[in-house]
Amino acid sequence: MVDSLKKPGFEELRPGIKVPAKETLLTPRFYTTDFDEMARMDISVNEDELQAILEEFRADYNRHHFVRDAEFEQSWDHIDGETRRLFVEFLERSCTAEFSGFLLYKELGRRLKDKSPVLAECFNLMSRDEARHAGFLNKAMSDFNLSLDLGFLTKSRDYTFFKPKFIFYATYLSEKIGYWRYITIYRHLEAHPEDRIYPIFRFFENWCQDENRHGDFFDAVMQSQPQMLNDWKAKLWSRFFLLSVFVTMYLNDLQRKDFYASLGLDAREYDIHVIKKTNETAGRVFPLMLDVDNPEFYQRLDICVEKMAKLNAIANSNTPKFLQFFQKLPTLASIGWHMVKLYLMKPIDAVSAQGMAR
Question: Taking every annotated instance into account, which residue ranges of this chain make up the domain Rubrerythrin diiron-binding (predicted)?
């Protein structure tokens, strides 16, 4: 008999293999793109910087970093109940996101090999990093008697098609927000080691540098394609992707605030810090930043968190599914309205903001 404290309420494909989390707007997505369009890109205007980044990837600074040490070799049964469930969810979301990056980068490396060798090698080396991250996280899940079947995940997930420029916007932000998430947790736990409930967090300092380098690569690619950054459409799309990434993180994390509390973090304060840092970083490449110092920004996000709780309550009720749909409609409309209001908030011109900062 399986101890319910060790496997709190997760469905399994087979013993020890977790059923992947249901795909929603808030779960990590798998992507595909127009590989031919990407192969035709002329990167010559910024090839020197891309070549320098490639040399950094080749150096493989973290090749000996992701090695489990003796601290992992113990029972983790004392992490139980709701904390255990939330931690397994954290590991699964992180593993899925890293594995999604691996699949995309690996395919890009394969497809671009003969037409754009510099980009192809960069993508291959980034896929190496993402595979390490995903494997390390999946092994961590096994300490809690569960893991993901990554082969099954590859075949069972729906893939979202994005044009190359949207891939660059999305992956740039994903890598940079990943950096700020990991380094913020790492620095907090260095200051408060009593809150480090599991040794994986000790690895986050070097780990987040992979994320940072990957983000720098996408920054350099976009700089090689000025049309992706300098017209009116770029202003609209950069706002859209910034808002999408921030909203997704905020709604996910505030629903799981008890997990962050177990690390001694206030989820809302943590997310606000990460949003501000990521927004500032994105202002070095995007033409616009969001006004994330405006209190209205978080007031509307907090309303959306409350609305999401209502949606979850409806979904978990015994009401028939077809009735649930109609019950959810007013709440979904309200969330959509607040998203529109957030998008229409006056943005900040990145060039002007950087000039003032200097």
Answer: 89-221
**Residue 148 contacts residue 13 (beta carbons within 8 Å):** no
Distance between first and last Cα of the chain: 63
Specify whether the CB–CB gap between 287 and 351 falls below 8 A: yes
State the sign of the Cα–Cα–Cα–Cα dihedral 164, 63, 71, 207.
negative
Q: Measuring CA to CA, which residue among 122, 293, 132 is closest to residue 219? A: 122
How many other CB atoms sit within 10 Å of the CB of residue 90? 22
Which amino acid does the sequence have at 196?
A: R
Helix (H) or strand (E) holding 110: helix 81-112
Distance from C-alpha of 270 to C-alpha of 254, rounded to nearest angstrom: 10
Query: Which residue bears the tokens 């380098």?
Result: 213
pLDDT tens figures, 183-236:
999 999 999 999 999 999 999 999 999 999 999 999 999 999 999 999 999 999
Nearest to 122 by CA among 54, 63, 184: 54
DSSP output for 27-45: S--EEE--HHHHHT---GG
For the four alpha carbons of 72, 77, 78 and 83, in that order, the dihedral sign comes to positive
The answer on pLDDT for 355 being more than 60 is no
- Asked whether the predicted pLDDT for residue 358 surpasses 80, the reply is no
pTM, entire model: 0.93
Single out the residue of 178, 343, 315, 155 nearest to residue 244, CA to CA. 343
Give the torsion through C-alpha atoms of 311, 313, 316, 319, to 10 deg.
Answer: -90
- Tokens (6 digits) for 257: 């605030």
